[in-house]
Specification:
Layout (H helix, E strand, L loop, with lengths): L5 E2 L8 H7 L5 E2 L12 H12 L5 E6 L5 H10 L1 H6 E7 L12 H16 L7 H16 L4 H9 L3 H10 L7 H29 L2 E7 L7 H13 L1 H4 L5 E7 L15 E4 L22 H11 L13 H9 L3 H17 L7 H15 L6 H11 L9 H6 L2 E5 L3 E5 L1 H9 L13
Parallel strand pairs: 1-2, 3-6, 3-7, 4-5, 5-6
Antiparallel strand pairs: 8-9
Helix pairs in contact: 1-14, 5-9, 6-8, 6-9, 13-14, 13-15, 14-15
Length: 438
Amino acid sequence: MIKSRLTTDITPAKNLDEIWKNFDPMLTMDPRTEFYIQRTDPEIRKLFFDLKKSQGIIHAFLCGHRGSGKTTELNRLCQDEDIQNKYHTLYLSIQDFGSETVHLTHDAVLLEMGLALTKQGKEIGLPALYEKELEDWGKEVVKTFLKDKNASAEVSTKVGAWFTYFKAQLGIRQEWKREEKQILEPRVQDLVGILNRLAREFKNRGGKELLVVVDDLEKGDSDAHREMHKRLFLENYDTMVQPRFSIVYTLPVYFRALESNRVPNDQLYAFSAVRLYEQKNKHHIKPPLCTGSKGYKLMRGFVEKRIAKPGDFFAPGVLDELLRIGGGLFRETARAVREAAYLALQEGDKKIGMAHAEYVFHQVKKEYQPVIRGDAVSILKQVSASVQGWVPGVEPFLQSRAVVEYENHNLWIDVRYVLKSYIQEIKIDGSPGPAPGV
């Protein structure tokens, strides 16, 4: 099943209005269109290879920044001819689950898999008994923890009421005592059993293995989102990989650096931002771009493919500046171009100038400034000064994209270009910041 919100109807922009439209950051490009920019990261190639060649079940975790192109690549995975020949694919986004993301639990994610599989199963003649099994499972779970007799009666009689109550209960799960969690766990094993029987039905009827992709789990910057990530993939990792069919989950970029990370290395596929400059130049306030590198050409192509005559709409050096602002992330780059086009339109200009790019630079910087205080200052200064590797406490800043992960032969992190000069100028303990960099 391919995501329905894929974009297929854009045409190369011929004016600033169309540039503004074509660079909506929320567009997810259909990999089958000419505007798709394919990432060739080794880990993405390995994920494709492992799924195609493996004789057994694959449980994979695609770990990377939001806006780095994971959704596009996962849709390409589902459309791949060899994958389709081997698997019956199901793409799921947690944004379509209808629950508050921060309240997601391991059983809620597995239940959504089951509901989606029964819905898709109707197309190949799966019996309705599986839908009934899931409904009975949900009713039992909900009623076990309901104190209100009237509500319990409604769950038993009103169509769909159990699912409404199930989602509502997710919001109070964190208040549960240990005894309540112990009551739930056998029920979760029953749910896994239903999923496994569903997978066998798909195999028996279609002759293909089942592959489920669960996307957008990495979304969210808050402490509550990080608690959700911990709940799913630290506390309940074993349950998330119990289903006997292949699954690809997305993970936040910081996850593999956690000391408590339980995902084995052979299940984790990293997906860093696109590298625009060399690691040795990260100390520069304005890092010189590697214009001959694959990363630079990839990101420049991302912009130029969507514009009929790119040279007509960017003053000299402006596109490179917008690429720096984007930090090697597709969504952030699209946003920078879109905002710059908006400013040019508002001022009645014919092309995007350096003044527009500078305005975008300061707008993005100001979004981060309110949270750069206290320990954050020290952490970001350490990131700027570090040669390679992680810095303790950097995880929230990786998640918010104030810090970006890159790799070549090494894995390294850097403060976003828009924050470099600001971080360097901030004083700690009354002492002046370091002298401005290059």
